[in-house]
Amino acid sequence: xxxxxxxxxxxxxxxxxxxxxxxxxxxxxxxxxxxxxxxxxxxxxxxxxxxxxxxxxxxxxxxxxxxxxxxxxxxxxxxxxxxxx
Length: 85
Prior knowledge:
The chain is mainly alpha-helical. The chain has helices at residues 14-25, 29-36, 40-48, 55-64, 69-84. The protein is globular, with a radius of gyration of 12 Å.
């Protein structure tokens, strides 16, 4: 899921990590979205890096996929700090 090169929206790299977690979980994105409590479109925006997921979404996503949310939360916080600087 790539953005247009002319897009001004930030590219959140956490989406790439979430995409890998999803692949390792071998679950369908629609199933994960339903279990997390978000729409498939909302999950897709996060996976594409177009939207920064909330802390709660990351926690639910990680647990749904059988992953530890700690690393994902650290990546999210780091990216958020970098955009403020």
